[in-house]
């Protein structure tokens, strides 16, 4: 069972291809939800998913979508279905960790110093300062932002862990200054 939700038929990616797949494979059912007409799929209760797929509790499930939708899905599966849910998230909760003290960030390669708050990712601090910093997902997954730490320590904004030794590679998108920090950028 594949459920795809988007605003309108015009916004529906791979609409015809999915229809073709459903024609080709009798075991595949598809359901398109156009939120402009039908409203959003609501997973804060089991009513919507129950109507679409009555035996959902016994199935493996894969979900991707906005954070609030995934939060509801996670809670629903935890509550009612022994957790058979796999999710792909495109955002990260940086409020999970306890923000540290912040401090003076030295971008050694750029010969720049900036005062940074303890809850602001070093990637943002670099960009604000006009420092050319590598990045990708901006949520701690791709590791494109890995940058050598020259001195000091950083706070992992997802967990609150303070860590770092000179020479370590730090993910600037999810790390903030925990006191004075030197980066190679
Ligand atoms: S930009 Fe992807 S992990 Fe930092």
Automatic annotation (TrEMBL):
The entry's keywords: 2Fe-2S, FAD, Flavoprotein, Iron, Iron-sulfur, Metal-binding, Oxidoreductase
CDD domains reported in the protein's UniProt record: fer2
SUPFAM superfamilies, per the entry: 2Fe-2S ferredoxin-like, Ferredoxin reductase-like, C-terminal NADP-linked domain
Cofactor: FAD
Keyword Metal-binding in annotation: yes
Keyword Iron in record: yes
A GO molecular function held by the record: metal ion binding
Any Pfam family hit: Fer2
PROSITE patterns linked to this entry: 2FE2S_FER_2
Domain 2Fe-2S ferredoxin-type: from-to ranges: 103-185
UniProt-recorded name of the protein: Ferredoxin
Organism of this sequence: Micrococcus cohnii
